[in-house]
């Protein structure tokens, strides 16, 4: 151990283990998390840093190999702890999995677990859940979630993809009629997923009923070849998350059975009659789940960055505070403390806010089961603004941590650039931050 | 907004009614509670002024959609201010919750973190506070001093605070942030893994660089 770091640890005035337990929400949670991370940190699950020198394709291939090895552990944890998708345990194990070193530039299977399955849960009827979820749990199918289009982002009412009901065959016919209507960005869609939840404008009996969710098979379950009428591929290199095969999807008269529309809230009957949802916002359920996860992840990214920066600042010595003295630890400079300590405090503030959001989300779901939608606008507004402010603050502070480490923070091997790449992606996915703040503003103005 | 006093407010916006009451914040004090109240006033005023501006534009004949767009900078700022109130209040309330269960040492350092976070945002949002709450230049000097004192108090615990995040080296995957602090050794080890260093002379020297240096390209 570096002597300076050792000295820092000796002068700490509080019990670190007690603080860890406080952060995890109790000793039992700390124990569980450590058990999970110990398994995930076995040498066979840890990336070699030489992946930084791989090509885009090689990175994807390695990510698939390692994701398969790693996510097979999820079944092991699930068998041992018997959790379901709605349990805190599921969220915690996922956080550990996606936060492991193997996933440091993202996983092609992430969206399957974070969006595909939760979306089926929040948007599918109990029959649909019974049919799809076991297949998804066992990964006999792998799903993506396609909402954003090449020409259309956060404003989902403006999506162009269509799903037109044909009562003669009891099928939906899906189309992306223009280049701008091609689905763009879904994680895992490029080469990994064989199914996809597609958000499209529903047409039945000649009338448009707005956007709804449909499960579309995009690749053959055996050969993995794209099915007829499907144009699918990887959108290319990005600032970060290059292990995730974000994809594009074009649909040309793709027919799916009526039962593949997720019908928990709104339905299309066999004869094409549309049965409206109690509240159209209920379709945003999966997005709200993801936003709660994002806020929590944001605290994790920031805690990683600030841990790196503070330890480095304790080891790094530069300049003299007083003439004739040895070079001092850069952590002794108030300017350095100003950069870093607010990041530590922000980790706690974001984590606590994320917990509050999670509690609100769970309370809403319980009330929803009882038929109450009273909390929906508040939850939506809360999820929007917390996602926006927390991702923005976290990104700013991670960059500040990188700058606090000087040139060494610019090295990929510091892991600060990759951490920044992951954190800043969250500022745009699942709703651009400015648009989300305007959604909160709409709620406030209405209030 | 106009019928705020009559409607039932959900928890995250309940503060909007209190802040409109007379005497909610007549006098500034450099305390956490006062800063949070000050931020609540800022959020309320920002919502109020943006809604009033929106209404004014609509009444002057501008279509609602255009008025919304023209007011969107203020609306975004109002939403952000509201979110700051939620984060600050949640952080502070959580501190009160752990008062009975934690050791005095932990409570002290958590309290310092809450104070640091709150004072930091008060200083970041000074322009807003100056506009809407009775804060003086002397109060601001006091806030700056308080912030610097907090940095000083937190300094001895800095490494302990990040150690408490309990991030394994396998998760951090950082040459400069590992638990043992072997920063320079790890950086060198990583440099040696660079495939470009696998051979002493890269082939591009003979193909391009040498001819170029000799003026043949």
Could you characterize what this model shows?
- The complex is a heterodimer of chains A (447) and B (217).
- Chain A has helices at residues 3-10, 16-24, 27-40, 56-81, 88-99, 110-123, 126-137, 285-315, 334-369, 376-404, 416-425, 433-446; strands at residues 143-146, 162-166, 171-175, 183-184, 195-204, 207-217, 230-234, 247-251, 254-257, 267-268, 274-275.
- The model of chain A has no long low-confidence stretch (mean pLDDT 92).
- Chain A has 447 residues and is an alpha+beta fold.
- In chain A, helix 10 runs antiparallel to helix 11 and helix 10 (376-404) packs antiparallel against helix 12 (433-446).
- Chain B is mostly helical and 217 residues long.
- In chain B, helix 2 (32-59) packs antiparallel against helix 4 (72-98) and helix 2 (32-59) packs parallel to helix 5.
- The longest helix of chain B is centred in the first third of the chain and has 28 residues, at 32-59.
- Chain B is extended, with a radius of gyration of 27 Å.
- Chain B starts with 14 loop residues before the first helix and ends with a helix.
- The model of chain B has no long low-confidence stretch (mean pLDDT 94).
- The interface between A and B is large, with 93 and 79 residues.
Low-confidence stretches of chain A: none
User: Roughly how many Å is the radius of gyration of chain A?
Assistant: 23 Å
Strand content of chain A: 5-15%
Overall spatial form of chain B: extended
> Which percent bin holds the helix content of chain A?
40-55%
List SSEs of chain A in N-to-C order: HHHHHHHEEEEEEEEEEEHHHHH
Structural class of chain B: mainly alpha
Overall average pLDDT of chain A:
92
Low-confidence stretches of chain B: none
């Amino acid at each position: 151990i570096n002597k300076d770091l050792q000295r820092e640890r000796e002068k700490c005035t509080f019990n670190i283990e007690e603080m860890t337990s406080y952060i995890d929400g109790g000793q039992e949670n700390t124990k569980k998390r450590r058990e999970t991370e110990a398994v995930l940190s076995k040498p066979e699950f840890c990336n070699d840093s030489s992946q930084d020198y791989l090509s885009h394709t090689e990175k994807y291939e390695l990510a698939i190999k390692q994701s398969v090895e790693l996510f097979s552990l999820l079944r092991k944890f699930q068998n041992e702890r018997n959790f379901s998708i709605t349990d805190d345990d599921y969220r915690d194990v996922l956080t550990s999995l996606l936060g492991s070193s193997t996933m440091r530039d993202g996983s092609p299977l992430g969206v399957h677990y974070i969006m595909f399955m939760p979306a089926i849960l929040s948007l599918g009827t109990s029959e649909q859940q019974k049919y799809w979820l076991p297949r998804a749990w066992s990964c006999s199918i792998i799903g993506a979630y396609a909402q954003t289009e090449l020409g259309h982002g956060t404003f989902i009412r403006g999506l162009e993809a269509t799903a037109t009901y044909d009562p003669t065959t009891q099928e939906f016919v899906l189309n992306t009629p223009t280049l701008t209507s091609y689905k763009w960005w879904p994680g895992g869609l490029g080469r990994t997923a064989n199914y996809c939840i597609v958000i499209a404008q529903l047409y039945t009996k000649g009338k448009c009923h707005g956007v709804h969710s449909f499960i579309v098979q995009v690749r053959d379950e055996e050969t993995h070849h794209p099915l007829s009428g499907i144009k699918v591929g990887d959108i290319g290199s990005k600032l970060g998350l290059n292990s995730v095969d974000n994809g594009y999807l074009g649909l040309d008269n793709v027919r799916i059975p009526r039962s593949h529309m997720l019908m928990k809230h709104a339905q299309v009957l066999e004869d094409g009659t549309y049965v409206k949802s109690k509240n159209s916002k209920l379709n945003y359920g999966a997005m709200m789940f993801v936003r709660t996860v994002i806020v929590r992840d944001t605290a994790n990214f920031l805690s990683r960055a600030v841990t790196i920066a503070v330890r480095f600042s304790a080891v790094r010595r530069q300049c003299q505070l007083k003439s004739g003295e040895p070079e001092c630890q850069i952590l002794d400079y108030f300017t350095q403390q100003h950069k870093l300590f607010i990041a530590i405090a922000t980790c706690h503030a974001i984590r606590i806010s994320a917990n509050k959001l999670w509690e609100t989300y769970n309370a809403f779901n319980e009330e929803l089961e009882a038929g109450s939608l009273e909390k929906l606008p508040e939850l939506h507004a809360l999820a929007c603004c917390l996602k926006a402010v927390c991702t923005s603050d976290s990104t700013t502070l991670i960059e500040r941590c990188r700058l606090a480490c000087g040139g060494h923070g610019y090295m990929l091997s510091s892991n600060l650039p990759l951490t920044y790449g992951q954190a800043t992606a969250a500022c745009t996915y699942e709703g651009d931050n400015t648009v989300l703040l305007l959604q909160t503003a709409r709620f406030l103005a209405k209030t | 907004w106009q019928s705020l006093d009559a409607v039932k407010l959900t928890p995250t916006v309940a503060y909007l009614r209190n802040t409109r009451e007379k005497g909610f914040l007549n006098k500034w004090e450099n305390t956490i509670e006062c800063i949070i109240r000050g931020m609540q006033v800022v959020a309320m005023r920002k919502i109020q002024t943006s809604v009033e501006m929106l209404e004014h534009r609509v009444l002057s004949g501008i279509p609602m959609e255009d008025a919304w767009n023209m007011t969107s900078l203020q609306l975004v700022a109002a939403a952000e201010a509201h979110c700051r109130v939620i984060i600050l209040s949640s952080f502070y309330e959580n501190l009160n919750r752990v008062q009975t269960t934690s050791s005095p040492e932990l409570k002290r350092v958590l309290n310092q973190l809450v104070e640091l976070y709150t004072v930091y945002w008060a200083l970041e949002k000074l322009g807003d506070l100056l506009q809407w709450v009775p804060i003086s230049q002397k109060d601001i000097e006091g806030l700056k001093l308080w912030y610097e004192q907090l940095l000083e108090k937190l300094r001895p615990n800095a490494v302990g605070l990040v150690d408490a995040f309990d991030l394994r080296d396998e998760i951090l995957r950082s040459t400069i942030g590992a638990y043992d602090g072997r920063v320079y050794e790890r950086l060198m080890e990583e440099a040696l893994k660079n495939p470009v260093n696998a051979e002493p002379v890269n082939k591009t020297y003979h193909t391009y660089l040498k001819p170029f240096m000799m003026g043949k390209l």
